[in-house]
Amino acid sequence: MWQRTTIGALLSLCAAHAAFGFACIKSSPTDGSQPQCIHWDQHAATVDSFLGVPSNPPLANGTVTWDQNVMGAANDWNSSGADFHFNVTVGGQFINPCGAAGGVHTCTNTGPIGNNPVLFADTFCGQGFGDILELVNDCWVQNTAKILNAPVFVNSTVSWNAYNGALFPGGQPVYDIRRVLLHELGHVAGLDHPDEQGQNVAAIMNSRVSNLFQLQPDDISGMISIYSGGSQPPPSDGSSPGPSSGCQVDAAPRQRPGWGAVLPAMVAALLLGRRRRSGASATR
Amino acid sequence: MALGLACLASPARAMVVVSRDFPELVARAEQIVAGTVAAVTEEQDAAGTPWTLVTLSDLTVLKGDVGATFTLRLYGGSTGEVGVHIPDMPTFTPGERALLFVAGNGRDVCPLVGIWQGRFRLRLDAASGTEVVDDSDSIPVVARSGRRLVRAASAAPPTPPPMTFDAMRHLIADELAHPTDANAPK
Questions:
Q1: With bands split at pLDDT 50, 70 and 90, how would you rate the model's confidence at B19?
Q2: Is this complex's ipTM strictly greater than 0.90?
Q3: What is the fold, at CATH topology level, of the domain defined by B16-177?
Q4: Across the interface, do A158 and B18 touch by the CB < 8 Å criterion?
């Protein structure tokens, strides 16, 4: 009885306040099927960290390698309760993701299937980063929404460290690689930016890097929505206007993730909401 | 196998960017142009990399050497069965009016200073009958305060009227003529 009451209360809370604004990157099928959230078919992805060691370890958060921050960010997502797992390898065989589609490159500048290097680079495959700090090149099959690979490029021309708390604690433009990796691994898994879908929520997955440095309830809800207990990832709302605005929990009933996904997300949201405070955007 | 999948697969790009304030937008821009989007086209280069080309006409050039039209080259697009979806990359629609702070056009993944921070939308304000400035999220710009442009969403009530394009032009001209000290507090 209490469970039904609790579920009802949580549902009412969600419906009344539209607490979750998470979004996923959507496929654009060419066969007439519904767009879906892009996803890893085996509910797992291996990322190969080639970031190495900073020149002056330890970093401000106590880690002594950049790679440890990749592992830390991956572990945060692995602890989210979603049926998804990041495996991290360090310093394996490097396959350059840059190159035209064909041969070993599944998409242009992605490398072969399953190749997800995390690397420092001073350009994105010869193109200047400009003001971009880090980017992910997700590659997926349009008609199945299955992700094939997703290399992560970290701009080596800006100053990096790893720290918790405010984005620029000393007022200096030194970036926290861990929170940026946390954000980019969300993209590797298929998540998109909730704040670009008209949502105003606290989330690592918001498009603007901010004082937030930990996963937020909305981030966790998004991951659980895509990877929910071995079921098929939820198709996105076909009526939504943009190509990447799906996966909200207030979608039509047939498009909602199962209870096994939504309820843990809500509970996690409530628990985390007590423990964490949201930070202010650093860019605006 | 990979070649076959290449015909069916699509990449997307997601990015985190450097924060840029108003003096930085002006100083770092190689060109500052306002204009009407005349065309949005796509092409692939010799390496098969897709690009989106945004051509602006009816130009007002505020900085840099620009011809009668200006074409912005952005990474991504689609050709045939291969598509590129870029969640973070600014997108443009023919007919819209834009004010752009451009750097690295033809060299960079996205040739806008601060990516979305260097893209403003111009619209005709029905109340005043003048062209006013919105940011990339369509939030009205209302004033400059120190190094920052103040958006309506963050302005103290009562909300000031939107900044006119003419006022923005003067702000840019003033900044070009008297650049803010790079060491001034942010």
A1: confident
A2: no
A3: OB fold (Dihydrolipoamide Acetyltransferase, E2P) (2.40.50)
A4: yes
Q: Quote the CA–CA distance of A90 and A74 in Å, as a whole number.
A: 13
Residues of B whose CB is below 8 A from A284:
151, 154
Confidence at A15, pLDDT banded by 50, 70, 90: very low
> Is residue A78 scored above 70 in pLDDT?
yes
Domain boundaries along the sequence of chain B: 16-177
Whether the pLDDT of residue A111 is over 90: the answer is no
Q: Is B109 in Cβ contact with A132 (below 8 Å)? A: yes
Cα–Cα–Cα angle for A156, A160, A166, rounded to 5 degrees? 145
Instruction: Give the sign of the dihedral formed by CA A185, CA B49, CA A245, CA A135.
Output: positive
Residue A178 reports pLDDT greater than 60: yes
- How far, in Å, CA of B22 to CA of B135, rounded? 12
Q: Which of A190, A201, A281 is nearest to A244 (CA)?
A: A190
Q: Which of A135, A154, A174, A185 to mutate to test the interface with B (most CBs of B within 10 A)?
A: A135
Determine the residue type at A199: Q
Taking domain A20-275, whether its CATH number is 3.40.390.10 is answered by yes
C-alpha count within 13 angstroms, C-beta hemisphere, residue B37: 23
